[in-house]
From TrEMBL:
Compartments (UniProt record): Cytoplasm
GO cellular component: cytosol
Protein's recorded name: Ribosomal RNA small subunit methyltransferase A
Family matches, as PANTHER family: DIMETHYLADENOSINE TRANSFERASE, DIMETHYLADENOSINE TRANSFERASE-RELATED
Amino acid sequence: MAKVRAKKHLGQHFLINEAIAEDIVDLILPEGRYKKVLEIGPGMGVLTKYLLDREDMETHVVELDGESVVYLNEHFPALKGRVYNEDVLNMWLTKELALEGNEKIGIIGNFPYNISSQIFFKVLQDKDIVDEVVCMLQKEVAERIASKPGSKKYGILSVLLQAYYDIDYHINVPPISFDPPPKVDSGVIRLVRNKNVTLDCDERKFFTVVKTGFNQRRKMLSNALKPMGIDFEHPNLQKRAEQLTYQEFVELTNLIS
């Protein structure tokens, strides 16, 4: 098979800029914290070939597109037994990657635009396993995740991910770097697990408080959080959700009965 057809329903846009591909792979740094890296949506392997050159990690790939799976197996025999033809959102990472004890992994990939947010919620679900993420996604989403409190781009994913990961924005990627070119620019971010094994609050309630606060982001939190039955006064309730750090959301979570 010479080439894989990009499929619109899978949100496929294949990166063709080799220099950017190398730069993305250079960002992932196991540094002894983990050995296995899972690439999401490798397509025709523009990142994969550079990952396989790395001696500091063992590359696994997950690809939903059957045509891409055939291509990868034909062109990258070194991946034998490590190509998973399934939806990453349904993967049981510990079992399928044969992780042992407290073994961690890294994740890398050109995330399909149509499921990028869902992938991050999967990362949060598996945060005790996922030590690092290097990914390319729609620039607007990348900037939102990496934005700081006070920014209009700061949102639900910003808070939830920054509670568990240190996040940096690294590379702008123009549409011309892809085949077919998307209609928007892309961006590359890196997430590295921080020291918060757990938060100092009920984490399920924390997620609910954050989501409820941003559901009406133009309102003060005293109004936005009314559905949660707040019955106290606090200075942060006179702010909007986009103004609070994750630590301040933790504090509010503990105050809500």
